[in-house]
Amino acid sequence: MAGIGFPISGSGGSGDPDDWRSQAPLFAEIEKLMSWSGGPVNWDLARQVAVRTAADGDVAPTGDDRRAIADAVRLADLWLDEATDLAASSGDAQAWTRVGWIDATLPVWRQLIDPVAQQVVDGLGGALSGGLGEIAENGLPEELIEQLPPGMKDMLPSDPAALQAMLGPMMGMLGQVGGMLFGSQAGQALGALATEVLGGAAVGLPLSGTRALLPGNIAAFAAELEAADLDQVRLFLAIREAAARRLFDHVPWLRSALLGAVEEYARGITVDPEQLQRTAGELQGIDPSDPDALQRALGPDLFAHEDSPEQRKAMRRLEALLALVEGWVDTVVAAAAHDRLPAADALREALRRRRVSGGASEESFAALVGLTLRPRRLTEAATLWDGLTAARGVAGRDALWAHPDLLPTADDLDDPAAFVVPDGTGEDWVGDDPIAALEQLAADGDRGPVEGDDGGASERGSD
Fold it and tell me: What number of CA atoms fall less than 13 Å from residue 284's CA on the CB side?
């Protein structure tokens, strides 16, 4: 993990020589950060770090930028009306800065990261509680007592239970330190993402409730492409943004399915108690006023965990959903832009490479919560949606979003052709009637029972 950055505010002080806080605003900031009580991640710190990371090179949209984006989204909606049955979203398109993207998407990131962070903090707390219980029975180890300053040795109570009560506040301190560590790391990851994202739905997640593009980042992206016309790049990205927004606006269960897969993954996280013991040894002798020293002592391995079978299943479901979202957007945008935008095919390939390869920001986020944002199976998902469009038409393809049990699963991505034409002829396909499709699925023993629409996408069959 990277070191925590402590923003320092104020410089003049009150002028009172006894008011040491005014002379050392760093201590006031540390006190403020350590008083966070809003959950396992210190999101005040996360936002400060994210904004500081993204602000370098951030530019405010001009009036021309806003008009160009609004015009591009209006044209995108006209083209998409022919490429999908999902209706256009309402509301005006937005032109965002990087900081605007951070502020608009932070509530969703909080929903994604908090469950993972909470499991890690709880695991650390449980391990520490066990250690305190051992102290209550046996007292502090002699080798640890010998390393204490003489004055502190004299302060130790002889009764082990009293010693445990004295050390109890460490539990609260653990939560504060954990919140700072996660807040710093989350802020750095989100700030890095803000320098790369091109729109509000750039990573396949429902991060905001509006259609938005980042003109500064789009201009930088267009500059990276050879012979790329900025107007064409902006229009192509507007089509992608409008298509993704239609999907999330008109598939009500999709948002909770994605977030639910993350929460299911988080429930299986554990902390290695042996690593915790090694960390406790590293904490001896560090300078408590040096936050980087504290984080170096804690180290990245403290938050490492090996995925359980349940976690791997949840991750497989999440990766499939992300791929299906991105693949559907890819297919719909290609249909809307192919014959109208000369650079459409080149831009489609450039964005595919960009999404599949990821970047340093996605690696940072993956290291934080063990989740990879990029859809690993984007090519297979796009192939599946292309095949569905050819075999069943736009209405038949889009009807699959009517219920989570109708969607392809991770197993279906292994063999897209078999899902497109289940029996080799397509005669069993029930058209664009989702009720008939659900009844058919319920009758197919190999597909499993149909679950209620509880906001989570079920996996048919086994992983």
Answer: 11
In the chain, which residues have pLDDT < 70?
A: 1-38, 123-178, 227, 269-307, 356-376, 423-463
Q: Is the pTM of this model over 0.85?
A: no
CA distance 261 to 204: 14
Tokens of 104: 């608009």
Q: In this structure, what token pair is assigned to residue 436? A: 């008939």
CA atoms lying within 13 Å on the CB side of residue 231: 7
CA of 100: how far to CAs of 95, 114, 151, in Å? 9, 21, 52
For 391-400, write each residue's pLDDT tens digit. Answer: 999 999 999 9
The residues near 12 (Cβ < 8 Å, ≥ 6 apart) are 22
Q: Are 128 and 276 in contact (CB under 8 A)?
A: yes
How large is the angle between the packed helices 230-250 and 215-224, nearest 10 degrees? 130
Buried b (16+ CB within 10 A) or exposed e, 430-445: bebebeebbebbeeee
Q: What is the pLDDT of residue 164?
A: 56
- Provide the 3-class DSSP secondary structure of residue 95: strand
